[in-house]
Amino acid sequence: MTMIGLEIHCQLTNLNSKLFCSCKANYREFEINQNICPVCMGLPGSLPRLNQEAVKKAMTIAMALNCSTPEKIAFFRKNYFYPDSPKNFQITQLNIYGDTSVGGAGSIMVGDKKIRITRIQLEEDPGRLIYEGSSSKNQITLVDYNRAGTPLVEIVTEPDFETPKEVRDFLNILSDILSNLGVADPSLEGAMRADANVSIQGGKKVEIKNIGSFHDLEKAAHFEITRQESLHSRDIEIVQETRHWDDQRKITVSSRSKEEDLDYRYFLEGDIPWVSIDAQTHENLRSEMPESISSKKERYVSKYGIPIQVADVLSSDKFYSDLFEKAHTDSNAKEVANIITTELMGLMDTREKRESSKITSTHLRELADAIQTGKVSRNSSKNALHEILKTGKNLSSVITELELGNVSDESELLEIVKQVISEESQAVEQAKSNPQTINFLVGKVMQKTKGKADPALTLDLLKKQTGIS
Amino acid sequence: MNLKISALEYVQEVQSGNISVEDYVSKTIERISKVDEKIHAFLSVSENVLDQARMIDKKVRSGEKVGACYGMPISIKDNICIKDGKTTCASKMLENFVAPYDATVIQKLKQQDAVFVGKANLDEFAMGLTTEFSAYGASGNPWNTDYVPGGSSGGSAASVSAFECVASLGSDTGGSVRNPASFCSVVGYKPTYGLISRFGLISYANSIEQIGPLTRTVKDSAFMLNIISGLDTNDNTTIDGNEQDFLSGIEYGIEGKKIGIIKEMVGEGTAPEVLAATNDAVSKLEGLGATCEEVSLDMVKYSVAAYYTITATEAGSNLARYDNLRYGYEFPVEGYEFNSYIAKARRRFGPEVTRRMIIGGFVPSAGQAGKYFLKALKVKSKLTREVGEVFERFDLLVAPTVPVLPFKKGEKIDDPIALFQVDLNTVTANLTGRPAVSVPFAISNGLPIGMQLIADSNHDKMLLQAAYALEQTVNLPEVPI
Ligand SMILES: [Zn+2]
């Protein structure tokens, strides 16, 4: 049986500051080595100052993944020499001397399958190495410490996955949960990284390190299973080892480093006293937690009658469900959900498009109302949406400027109806004998009004003018 | 000009206009240039402090508000960072390290118009108890320059003792303030863990060490504590001292106090002169109205072993950052692979630091932790429990600060085990987080003996009252230098 376990590193990208200093957690906007200070550079005499907000966010993640949360948490030092680590140790958490990391055992459901979480720990991200030079002989390594000390949550799972697809489904759910909590933006580059343990029936456990994206994680698991199965079929022993994911070649490569032999000499970080998390804090954190995706979904279906597939898509995306919450009223909820899932999601399918779009919840609310009252046809609402995304102008001026308003003035419409009747005498006769074909005439009116005629009014006028009932 | 005044006397003299800051500071600098070649208490001297002194004089004359130190010349152990100056830890590794910040204690002293006359010598990275392990040469004891001043804050103690400054700041990991204070016959104070911010103190064993004052009198230590203690957002381990005033009520006395004489710290290994001094101290304490009784702390016999295991482990980690990649000394990195570069760069550490880091790599390692590091932690927690129980019955504990008299330079440097035993009486306060003070108590054949008092956590004020009371019972000769 194939067994896959994951160690997922997730940056708490929505925090203001790093885990132990006041440098920015969002290091991405800085020039190289400009988001650093004595603390995150580990200068002699500097001391870490624990970011309490990071502890709360990490605890929230633990709660959302149904993990046990302790009354006291502690930090440990993981000692190893590496140039991206300014102190040559990492401040992290451990559960070997009692459950003192932010989260203990938990689980989440992926479809019908329960995936068990082993633990969740809060730790600091190291800096970033940049390699320059072509051949290994003149290669130089540069270090950018902007990322050093960024808050990172490590989520460790039990080896409960049997296929790469299960891994992918889990990761999708996990990133939805994390963004719904408002703790992280999984779409940011490098915000989510992972290691995977893969073993097949009769083989030893192989650890794959350094997988830079969720997309690659599924690929890496797939590659590794295939590799191991091929070895197995040729009776070649699968040895316990650490491999690295080569994201250029999309393969795993055995790492010659003796990483598995490293002794991290863990011990308590004396510079950070134990943090007590009392019952009240637990309660507050729980009550301040945003509504879960599943409860949102349920509410959308039961309260607004939104179809379950639509509710599913809407609730699992924080950006759109937030937009929905702000835009909808009790009467237009279904229409708002419809606009978002059928139109908006397609128009804003990249991060850049989302960020550059000028749409607000007010736009959405007004547009849904306009469709419901017949002020705008569903057809022309698409054009309006395009224009709003681009310009951010308000709906009524978009309607006027693009002449998108429905022709609901009866006398204006009557002229067009009369015109169609005189032009399509044959069709009129046909409609008299077969009333269902009257839709052809409605279509003609729509054509002449570029889709802006109020369909109900058009039908009404056509019937009156032709005497069809 | 009399340099031999206490900090409180200095403040009074300046306040009353009897002396000028400029005069006192320039005489201090003169004194340093005269005597420091004999005792090498300083690694660097700030020659340019006279402008600052004159400015404070001006403030005094014009009646402007002046900080509590009134330009008092203070020396600072060279493992405490002063912004824009070198902080070397007496190591070749940090030969050129210039901190871009002030330690919290320095900030506080600056606010109170202290003048920093220089950085005091120490054992490299504060590892040692003779100051012989300084990479820049040993310090001498002002009482007899052939003798060690103790350590690791040997430069601090010697500078106060030899009137090269009014007061000093040291750091105490296992006795590093109290030991040299005892050897040089000055007061050395190690506060409750967390009372003083460690921000800007270069870590050796961060879970047990504290910055502490070295002064001529107990009152001076209280005066310094008033300035440098307190909660600090830059050090998460600081405790809320509720802005205590350690000076007020310091003359309260110790009548009715119960004092335990720690059995394990007065015995076989104690020098006869030190033993006699201890007996004398006990009868003096009783004369002051306290009752003294022998008390046993069983874990003390393992304390030195536990202390060296824990400090080596923490040192191994704390000193790992010195890979010379971001600061340090001139040694180009180009052409090296990372591991071979740092292996070479780190050869600049001296023998004692290297020894402790090798131990620090071994005792917490996967195969050994159970035998050494975890066992040491057990001793620490058992000792802490024991001390806690003792303080349910006693207000204070007493023991000689160091079991032996000051010894000659070179006498023990090649015998680390013999040196380790010198720490026997001081490490307990560090391992248990308790406050402790060394009070100058006797001079035997021209060599000082200090008496140590220990109190329960957060009873620093009571400890200072007791130290003050004991101090009043002795009348010691003046340092010969
Ligand atoms: Zn920083």
Strand count, sense and barrel status of the largest sheet of chain B are:
11 strands, mixed
Kindly report the spatial arrangement of strands forming the biggest sheet of chain A.
5-6-9-1-10-11-12-13
Whole-number mean pLDDT of chain B: 96
Given this structure, which CATH class of the domain at 7-251 and 437-450 and 463-471 in chain B is correct? Alpha Beta
Beginning-to-end CA distance, first to last residue of chain A: 69 Å
Largest sheet of chain A: 8 strands, mixed
Tell me which protein chains meet in the greatest interface and how many residues each side has: A-B, 32 and 45 residues
Number of strands of chain B: 11
Percent in helix of chain B: 25-40%
Spatial order of strands in the largest sheet of chain B: 1-3-2-4-6-5-10-11-9-7-8
Residue stretches of chain B low in confidence (pLDDT < 50, at least 5 long) are none
Give the CATH topology of the domain at 7-251 and 437-450 and 463-471 in chain B: Amidase signature (AS) enzymes
**Distance between the first and last residues' Cα of chain B:** 17 Å
Strand content of chain B: 5-15%
Distinct compounds present: zinc ion
The CATH homologous superfamily of the domain at 7-251 and 437-450 and 463-471 in chain B is termed Amidase signature (AS) domain
- Average pLDDT rating of chain A: 90
Number of domains of chain A: 3
Tell me about this structure.
The complex is a heterodimer of chains A (469) and B (481). In chain A, 41% of the residues lie in helices and 17% in strands. Chain A is α+β, with helices and mostly antiparallel strands. Chain A folds into 3 domains: 280 residues, no CATH class; 109 residues, no CATH class; 57 residues, Arc Repressor Mutant, subunit A, CATH 1.10.10. In chain A, the strands form 4 sheets. An 8-stranded mixed sheet of chain A has the order 5-6-9-1-10-11-12-13. In chain A, helix 3 links the parallel strand 11 and strand 12. By secondary structure, chain B is of the alpha/beta class. In chain B, helix 2 runs antiparallel to helix 3 and helix 7 runs antiparallel to helix 15. Chain B has an 11-stranded mixed sheet with strand order 1-3-2-4-6-5-10-11-9-7-8, with helices on both faces. In chain B, strand 7, helix 8 and strand 8 form a beta-alpha-beta unit. The model of chain B has no long low-confidence stretch (mean pLDDT 96). Helix content of chain B is 36%, strand content 13%. Chain B has a domain of 268 residues: Alpha-Beta Complex (Amidase signature (AS) enzymes). The complex binds zinc ion. Zinc ion binds next to loops of chain A.
